[in-house]
Design goal:
Radius of gyration: 22 Å
Low-confidence stretches: 306-311
Strand order of the largest sheet: 6-5-4-7-8
Number of domains: 2
Number of helices: 10
Order of helices and strands: HEEEHHHEEEHEHEHHHH
Largest sheet: 5 strands, mixed
Strand content: 5-15%
Distance between the termini: 46 Å
């Protein structure tokens, strides 16, 4: 069930704070400094900030945004929650210009908000590998945009490279890499694919060696116009690439190469928590908000990345 965009948490600051506290602290407030639970007092009075709490163990005060990507933001919290819902529920993404119009903030602010939310959508490192016994994983690479400083010419040498793995009926993981070669692809597959799976790829030589390590390796020969042979295909991943490219070209239109991995994380997050897997827009947005903790992304950091990309 989709969320009502006129709901209190999207229009009222106190309701937004209560909603975020319920998502982040379902068992009650937790001190972000010492981790204590239960021995926390909600501060009242004129000198207390809205939503301010104090830990009675370490004696430090905090609010629900401390230790998250929302920390030290002057943007009203209800606008953060609305932006998170819009990004989580838009299959091909939502542009910063659209956020700026809908939220009533400047374009610059909307652009920065979107990057913070993408940071919240970034999966934690060390997660379980995709696949498993009886499951199929598809691996493939795609090319999008032009690398900084490269001249467009025939072939793919001037383009940005993305390598992705998808579990059929499950999630996807994508990686922006310098080049799609044997060592790079093997490292990604080693870290993110369960060897008990059946690996499905095209005929590219970089998959041949690592494919022998799987329970089964099925290849289709795209060069011979072969795209499906029984359950051997990479069509699931081709479908994901289609969503990703339509979003990047039709919605975002331009992406600095240094930010490409964050956009991939955004598309991966939505696909891995899609409706076909039983996740509603509201549940997807809630999961994104659960990812705000322990991450910081400052405006200065993004500006440094942009400056570096411009040489």
């Amino acid at each position: 069930m989709s969320a009502d965009l006129a709901a209190p948490q999207f229009t009222d600051e106190n309701a937004a704070r209560e909603a975020l506290e319920a998502i982040r602290w379902p068992g009650g407030p937790v001190c972000p400094f010492c981790g204590v639970v239960g021995n926390i007092t909600r501060l009242q009075g004129k000198s207390a900030r809205p939503g301010q709490l104090q830990c009675n163990d370490c004696r430090r005060s905090f609010t629900v945004t401390v230790g998250t990507v929302f920390e030290r933001s002057h943007i009203p919290l209800h606008k953060w929650l609305l932006a998170s819902h819009l990004m989580a529920s838009s299959k091909k993404g939502i542009s910063a210009h659209q956020l700026h119009r809908m939220l009533g903030v400047t374009y610059k602010t909307a652009w920065f908000m979107a990057h913070r939310i993408r940071e919240a959508m970034t999966p934690p490192s060390g997660g379980s590998p995709l696949g498993g016994s009886g499951k199929h994983i598809e691996a493939d690479e795609t090319y999008i945009g032009k690398k900084h400083g490269k001249v467009a010419r025939r072939g793919t040498g001037h383009k940005r490279v993305v390598v992705s793995l998808v579990e059929r009926g499950g999630g996807v993981r994508s990686f922006h890499v310098d080049t799609a070669d044997i060592p790079t692809v093997k490292k990604i597959i080693d870290q993110h694919a369960d060897r008990a799976s059946t690996l499905n790829t095209d005929e590219a030589a970089m998959y041949s060696g690592v494919g022998r390590e799987f329970a089964k390796h099925q290849m289709v020969h795209h060069g011979r116009e072969e795209f499906v042979r029984g359950d051997a295909h990479t069509n699931t991943l081709e479908g994901y690439f289609s969503i990703f490219k339509r979003g990047m070209k039709g919605v975002y239109q331009h992406c600095d190469e240094r930010h490409l991995q964050r956009y991939l994380n955004e598309f991966d997050f939505r696909y891995s928590n899609r409706a076909a897997l039983g996740t509603s827009d509201k549940e997807r947005a809630t999961k994104a908000l659960k990812g705000i903790e322990g991450k910081r992304l400052t405006y200065r950091r993004i500006n440094r990345e942009q400056a570096a990309s411009l040489g």
